[in-house]
Write the structure tokens for this entry.
Amino acid sequence: MISITIIGSGNVASHLITAFGNCKTISVKQVFSRAKIDFELPTNTKLIHNLAELKPVDLVIISVSDSAITEVSAQIKIPNQLVAHTSGSMDMNILDDSLRKAVFYPLQTFSKSKNINFSEVPIAVETQHENDMELLLTVANSLSAKVFKINSIQRKNIHIAAVYVNNFTNHLYKIANDIADEHQFPFEILLPLIDETTEKIHHLKPEDAQTGPAKRHDDVTINSHLQSINNKMYQDIYQLLTKSIQENG
Amino acid sequence: MISITIIGSGNVASHLITAFGNCKTISVKQVFSRAKIDFELPTNTKLIHNLAELKPVDLVIISVSDSAITEVSAQIKIPNQLVAHTSGSMDMNILDDSLRKAVFYPLQTFSKSKNINFSEVPIAVETQHENDMELLLTVANSLSAKVFKINSIQRKNIHIAAVYVNNFTNHLYKIANDIADEHQFPFEILLPLIDETTEKIHHLKPEDAQTGPAKRHDDVTINSHLQSINNKMYQDIYQLLTKSIQENG
């Protein structure tokens, strides 16, 4: 049985706690949260509100906002404790030097209101010491079938790529939703197209899946679209992405 | 039995011909193609290479490039023939004035290499004459469960929205793929996140689904990302979309 403590109670932390709680090979010893928590803890897990109460475990996972990781790690007064953060964008080295450092980064978008099937969530792991890797891999494999050894530079770039495919893509959906509201057609009319766009890149390289006025240099349609878009920033986005499709493929 | 002729043999035309060929209530009389065709025609459908050979039918569908629609429609020498084009961006009125005008716009991204389940494809229909609407609706309903009466201005804006959610989203996938290649991690690591991003907006409004550094005004992460992006245009896209998330929600 591997013992784990989780520091944090946000989106990622709460999903991890629940997922580990369902693992027969993992015992979640303690959960630290500054405030009350709004989700259920596994049986036998102790909620603490003071980091001085932390007990040594096989692995402590810090799942707090990026800017708080270093400070929180400095409050873990268990020398040589193995500690992983869950951030996509922060270097492993920001953890306190008194600790054995690691990263446990689940690459998924989490909402508290929505359950996640963790077996499909890629997990990127990294350790400061080579002989901690086996434990990290065991813990990651207990949740997911898709575990990758990824160094800090790669992880940072995965996070950047994730911003494009998640945050920015979602914003394009928001723009489409605004256009639908303005012209009184249901946003739902676009869902099959959205699904198909996503489905396609499971089989085709994105550049081979590209179609539309930008790709075929259809300036008549492009200019006519630009004249119809009322939001200046949405117009700029249309123009820049059209140019990038034409120059980068 | 409703008789249809299709002018064109591109992506949209070929999928429509195949789908109508599988409809018991529709007979595809003729297909016009300038060149040889690389897909199978329904039994009893005649391939013609000269528009002078067109026979009167219940509905002629012109599925050619936007810039060719007007010219092709002028070559249909059957006065008062009901004729629909399939373009998302062109006005119904660009069809020749000797014809009864209509639009039959299937809102989906078509690739020749990939089959389409037409029952899930929204179809937007419009007619010049109110009493042609029933036939257009019957034809559209024979293919799809999602048929909408949509006027030309709405249709143009649906097409604009479709460019954002299809062409531009696909380009964001292409950017992520370039980042993956550059930093030697598999693009596949991003697929569960891409799927979840799409899945979410079936249940949440896009602005309620938004997360990430732009949304939480995390300038440290944003600046660190911008410094890591080598392609200047991808950097500009990151900056503009971040700004738009912050200003438009």
